[in-house]
User: Which sequence fits this backbone?
């Protein structure tokens, strides 16, 4: 019995840390997109902030449903998949993951390839808007998770 509780607590801690990491990474990426619009940001700064490679850090968002589903399978009836808030949270995650992978990360790559061309305004604005959607979906998911208690 004690081993089960420790395992669940580790899953819960992983779930919370993944949520905090996701928010932190997305907020920093959003701030970087805003900085691309500033005339005081140098090209070297932009190259560091937007390297032309895949953004693996942003994909920490995918740890949340994995740990959440594991908690649902190992926890008591209050966290089962049959609970409406669990399904709602998973649906919101799917929307956020889609928007991140299909819209925001490609916009980030577009901005990264634009560094040095002098044409950063449009890609930076697009990235900012796409990240606003992802952050809104993640915030709504967190609200669902908190309100259920």
Assistant:
């Amino acid at each position: 019995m004690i081993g089960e509780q420790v395992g669940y607590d580790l899953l819960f801690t992983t779930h919370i840390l993944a949520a905090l990491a996701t928010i932190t990474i997305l907020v920093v990426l959003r701030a970087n997109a805003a900085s691309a619009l500033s005339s005081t940001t140098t090209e070297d700064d932009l190259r560091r902030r937007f390297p032309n490679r895949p953004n693996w850090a942003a994909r920490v968002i995918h740890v949340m449903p994995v740990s959440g589903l594991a908690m649902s399978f190992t926890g008591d009836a209050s966290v089962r998949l049959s609970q409406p808030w669990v399904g709602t949270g998973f649906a919101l995650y799917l929307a956020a993951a889609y928007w991140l992978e299909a819209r925001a990360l490609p916009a980030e790559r577009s901005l990264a390839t634009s560094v040095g061309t002098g044409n950063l305004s449009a890609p930076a604005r697009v990235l900012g808007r796409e990240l606003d959607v992802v952050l809104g979906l993640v915030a709504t998911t967190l609200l669902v998770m908190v309100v259920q208690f």
Q: What stands out?
A: The chain is about 75% helix and 0% strand. The chain has a mean pLDDT of 92. The two ends are 23 Å apart (CA to CA). Helices lie at 2-35, 43-49, 63-74, 84-114, 121-147.
